């Protein structure tokens, strides 16, 4: 195998590992109040490093993306018009949709179908089961992506909104993340403790882009180190490829490795 091919394969492998570790590193850092990327300039983490990180990674190069959609099942005879209005407003949230029964004139079948599509493309199976159980409650799904330069690892979650308050509140369901229960903190000041979660669902275009960035850096490093070693050997009178001492060798060919010309 040629040296350039071997160097390229190593660069891609190390580039992917580096990109992955950077994404998880940002996740761990953002779990620290000091470097909280999800609530920039919120009063917490107002140190210089935090501002620098937010500017570099959050604003100019968004390393964190978060989105959600939520829906509500509405039974027309028992639902106030204001709640229907609210459901329609929820539908306007970016990436959002709302679930309504087809008895509501303003909704229609297309809305129901849209919800079903959303549920199937967002597949925590336990949550689908819970949605089948609830008749009048709502549900909320969210996702977050993290990584640098592009958000490349995704995790998802969801929960049931018990609007009536007559059912036990099911706990939140997570998908695509490793729970680090040793690191807990309240995500909202004063809120309940939550574990750190490391996302692992790959966002392929971003994975490829980040691997190219870090892999390119590894490739440049390997090439630079090799060029320096070759230069140092030549200056010391050695073969630039294998390091054999050529001071007493007549001719231009290394007797050790066969390389011609010093
Ligand atoms: Zn040699």
Describe the structure in your own words:
- By secondary structure, the protein is of the alpha+beta class.
- The chain is built from six helices and seven strands, in the order ααβαααββββββα.
- It has helices spanning 3-30, 48-60, 81-90, 109-121, 125-133, 204-235, and strands at residues 64-72, 138-146, 153-161, 173-175, 177-185, 194-199, 201-202.
- Strands 1, 2, 3, 4 and 7 form a five-stranded antiparallel sheet that branches. Strands 5-6 form a two-stranded antiparallel sheet.
- The longest helix has 32 residues, at 204-235.
- The chain is rod-shaped and about 95 Å long.
- Zinc ion (ZN) is lined by residues 239, 241-242, 244, 254, 256-257, 259.
């Amino acid at each position: 195998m040629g040296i350039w091919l071997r160097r390229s394969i190593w660069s891609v492998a190390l580039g992917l590992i580096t990109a992955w570790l950077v994404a998880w590193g940002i996740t761990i850092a953002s779990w620290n109040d000091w470097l909280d990327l999800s609530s920039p300039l919120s009063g917490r983490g107002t140190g210089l490093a935090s501002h620098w990180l937010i500017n570099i990674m959050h604003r100019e190069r968004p390393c964190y993306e978060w989105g959600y959609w939520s829906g509500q099942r509405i039974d027309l005879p028992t639902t106030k018009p204001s709640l229907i209005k609210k459901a329609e407003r929820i539908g306007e949230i970016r990436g959002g949709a709302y679930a309504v029964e087809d008895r509501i004139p303003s909704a229609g079948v297309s809305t129901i179908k849209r919800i079903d599509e959303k549920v199937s493309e967002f597949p925590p199976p336990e949550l689908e089961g819970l949605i089948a159980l609830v008749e009048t409650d709502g549900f909320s799904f969210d996702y977050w992506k993290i990584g640098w330069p592009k958000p490349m690892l995704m995790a998802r979650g969801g929960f049931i909104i018990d609007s009536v308050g007559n059912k036990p509140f099911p706990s939140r369901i997570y998908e695509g993340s490793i729970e680090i229960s040793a690191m807990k903190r309240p995500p909202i000041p004063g809120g309940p403790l939550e574990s750190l979660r490391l996302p692992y669902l790959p966002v392929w275009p971003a994975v490829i882009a980040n691997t190219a960035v870090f892999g390119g850096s590894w490739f440049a490093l390997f090439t630079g180190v090799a060029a320096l070693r070759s230069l140092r050997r030549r200056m010391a009178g050695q073969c630039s490829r294998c390091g054999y001492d050529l001071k007493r060798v007549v001719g231009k060919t290394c007797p050790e490795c066969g390389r011609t010309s010093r």
